[in-house]
Amino acid sequence: MINPKKGTLRWGVIQDKPLWIIFERSMVITLQQELIMNSDKTIDGREVSVHIAHGAGITVQFVHNIIIHGIRIHHIVSKEGGMIRDSVDHYGLRTVSDGDGISIFGASKVWVDHVSLDHCTDGLIDAIMASTAITISNCKFNHHNDVMLLGASNSFHGI
Hints:
The chain contains 1 helix and 18 strands. About 30% of the residues are buried. About 5% of the residues lie in helices and about 45% in strands.
């Protein structure tokens, strides 16, 4: 998690420049630790079938300008913490993740679109801690009784 291989999803989301991440082929990605995104990133699963499954989820924390589109996130579980890189120049010690499919924490300008989520240990999507300008559109939520947690101070647009 400290030195992701170039060309992987984990490598792409930590880059310091705007990046539109697409996939050459269909795949299932099992994250051993949470995937922490840097600002100005798009994860675009259109044209292929991309699953983030049977491991940790996606964390959008204190960043802006994030789009997550056209992927399936399922069977997300709590995973051990450890040293995880969140940018090219920084990594840090993370505690145990809670099992959210997508965790949005103190972030702004986040759009989650055409994402299917199900079977996550905690919430499917959490948008908390003064996250603002969050849009969740055209998503499918299945097999869960705690779909979304929204903090009281959030600006939230549609489902």
